[in-house]
Amino acid sequence: MSKTKRPASTSTSIHDLISHRWSPRAFENRAVEPEKLRALFEAARWAASSYNAQPWYYIVGTKDDPTNYQRVLDSFVEFNQGWAKSAPVVGLSVAQLKFGHNNEPNSHAFHDVGQASATLQIQAEALGLSVHQMAGILPDKAREIFKIPEGFAVVAGFAIGYEGDPKTLPDGLREKEVAPRERKALDSFVFSGAWGHTSPIVAKK
Predict the structure, then answer these.
(1) In which domain, by residue range, is 58 found?
(2) For 179, which of 167, 172, 173, 189 is 20 to 30 Å away at the CA?
């Protein structure tokens, strides 16, 4: 579990692996054990998916393979490269856009890749690791670098490692690292009956 003790302030009890999960930008200068990395992707393997199509793919770089690591890092926007370069593991998630069994478009591909990555992230939390997923990537550059074929789309980037000291970050990012954690209230997004009508399941008493 993350070493920074800032669990989410929840409206009802949830599992510690979820309430303690967050996305740091500071990482220790420490390699992730191969068996732990394998466990993360094994967890992703068992995520749910439409028609069990499993449309997720991952491109991963570790610092013990500097050339490949840099190729992944080069697929991030400059801002994200700035902090992600401290992480021992970086990667990209990729979605297969058509079902394998009938070659029809899979409109849930991105959803299912997200499920796999979320499952990976909870497994990371259980192993004392942290994951920061990011939208700030360069999909076209990644496609060129890694020769990703047509029919597949780069979804997101991620950094994996042991959570580090926020003091290692520049001022702007350091403030974000220790800022209060906030989320929308349940009654603002759980509906029933009609759009915008709060479900009684989550309505404030």
Answers:
(1) 16-169
(2) 189
